[in-house]
Each structure stands twice: as C-alpha cells, then as structure tokens.
Amino acid sequence: MKIRVKFRKFGPLRFIGHLDVMRYFQKAIRRADIDIAYTSGFSPHQIMTFAAPLGVGLESNGEYMDIECRSVTTSQDMMDRLNRAGAPGIQVVSVKRLPEGAGNAMASVAAASYTVRFREGREPGFLHEDTMEQWIWKFLSQEQILVSKETKTGVHEVDIRPGIYEMRVAAADEGAAAEEEMFSAEEEMAATEKFGVASGALKKAVLPPIYMLVDASSAGNLKPGKVMEAFCAAFGENLQENALRITREETYMRLGTGRSAEATMEAGGTKKIEKAGGTERTGEIEEAKRSEGTGEVKRSEGTGEAERIGGVKGAGERNDIGSGLVPLDSIGEEITGTADGEESA
C-alpha cells in the first residue's frame, strides 16, 4: 500500500541537500522498523519518491515523501517511530494512506507556497520608502515580468508573471513555525564556519515576511529566489547575496490530478469531491476577486485555498491558473488501525 509522509525541515539540517535527505529517511525507516517494500533484483532498494526537491538552505513546513509498505500499524505509531529514529531538524507531521490508483507525489506537484524574509541589513533600500503592500502591488501591476533563464540552448528571456499565482504580505500566522526555529548563537557560528554564511546574516528579519504561491510544476517550476530577484530589479536594485530566508510552507496538487480513484464533478459552480474512505466534501467554488488597489483575496469555501486573479489594477487579464489547488496530503486518510488484510508491522 502507498503511504504519504509529510515532514518539516528546519534549523541546521536545512543545509543538507536532497540526496542526503533521501539517505536520512532510508536509514530512519530501517531504524524505525517500518515494513517498507523493496524493489526486486540484485540491488534492492526502498520504494520511495519525493514530491519536489528543496534547495539547500531553505526551510520547509510542507515536504512530502511517498513510500510503499507491505504492512502498517497506525499513522500515529509510524509518525512517532520515524521521529524517534530521526534527528532534530526533520520532523514527520503526518502519515496517511493513499487511495488505490493515486498518482505519486512528484508527478502531482502543481504549486508551492513560500514565506520570504529579508535578513536584517540586507533588504533593498526602496522598501523603506513605502509600505511592503504598495511595492508588491506595483510589482504585480506589470503586464510582464521578464527574467533571464539559462537553458540547454542558451540564455532566454521568460515571462514569470503567469507563474506567480499570489503574492502579498504574509498573515500573522503564516511562517510562525519557522520563526521559532531561528539559529542560536552556536548554530550561527557553526554555519558560518562550515558553509561560509556571513557573520550576522542569520539574524531575525525586521521587515514583514512576503507570502507567495507560485508554479512548481515540472513544466514551469518557478523558484522564489528568482521572483525576489525580479522584485528588486523592477525598482532598480540588485538582490544582495544571502539576503533571503525562505520557507516552503506547503506543496500543492491540482484538483483532478493524483486522484484517479476519486470522482470529481463540476456543475453550476459547485465542486463535489468523493474522498477515500467514502467521505465527501462539497463547497461552493467562489470566484476569487481582488479589490482594486488592495491585496484582498476571497478564499474558496471548503478548501481554504486562495484563488488568485491577476486583477490588480494594471495587471492585465485574469489569471486563475492558481485556483483549484489542495495540499498533497488532502487525498489521503489517517490509518487508525491495522489495514484490512494486512498484518501489523
């Protein structure tokens, strides 16, 4: 059976790369005695896939890994085992069983949300001349946001504006967990010596954090750092080195993808989703509207996810590609007892 594991990555472990995270979980799963399935052949390995690799130096509250298990106990038991077998800096926060036929995490990724903070003393000067809300509004009001992108055929200019589904000042409760994981003096010194982080660069940001929801699909993967480079360049400044502290808050899939075992129906503005386990969720899909000159966004009832429209004054035509997004673990269900026909691990 397929199991989807959601985990956080924070503190000093944000400096380890994706391959190290894979090795970390391979060892943690063995130590936790999780009954994971292995491939066949001369060199069997654990069956696991990750949703979207996280860049070195980024923290995350919404990472996902799919594993295939031969037997399971309960979600709480598996989560506790993995956390006891792990190390500080990676925390498993949920374990859910996927329905039959569900797509894997990597193929399902459509978008990701981030909170971005400027480190103290490394913010661009123009931010002190007006409110953050006004600068974001001016940035999104551009019809095109062109950046240089290096590909196999050379350097090309691409328009990243369609890939920015939402961008605003973060709400008070967004990114709160990452704030609690600020480096201690000893950790800052260790990171400075090992990774060349400039002294004082890990201090708490003084400007309000920025929230953004961007395209994270394989076809249009947009990195938050690239968005912030364009943000600074739009007002005549360059983004300073090591100026940002970035936290991935959640990873999303689009309704209708990764849900091959579920029925999705749209009629008369109502979306009905038959979830695994026979439960249903029905919510009116309201059109998201931005009030001119404000960052107000309506949220779809029943999902809580903001549906972005490029309706900011001067921003051009409607862009609702960011609508219909749900977290990757929304299609799973908690394992509350031994699965039918399976022996407890």
Protein described:
The chain is α+β, with helices and mostly antiparallel strands. It has 2 domains: 2-108 and 329-334, 2-Layer Sandwich (Alpha-Beta Plaits); 109-254, no CATH class. Helices cover 18% and strands 27% of the residues. It has 7 helices and 15 strands. The protein has helices at 18-31, 75-85, 105-108, 132-140, 176-179, 185-195, 224-233, and strands spanning 2-9, 48-50, 59-68, 90-97, 109-118, 146-151, 154-159, 164-169, 210-215, 244-254, 264-267, 270-274, 280-284, 325-327, 333-334. Strands 1, 2, 3, 4, 5, 8, 9, 10, 14 and 15 form a 10-stranded mixed β-sheet that branches. The protein has a 3-stranded antiparallel β-sheet with strand order 11-12-13, with no helix packed on it. The chain is elongated, with a radius of gyration of 21 Å. The two termini are 13 Å apart. Mean pLDDT is 77; it is low at 177-181, 197-205, 259-319 and 339-345.
Instruction: From the alpha carbons, calculate the radius of gyration and give it in angstroms.
Output: 21 Å
User: What are the secondary-structure elements, in order, as H or E?
Assistant: EHEEHEHEHEEEHHEHEEEEEE
The number of distinct β-strands equals 15
Q: Estimate the helix proportion, in percent.
A: 10-25%
Major sheet, described briefly? 10 strands, mixed
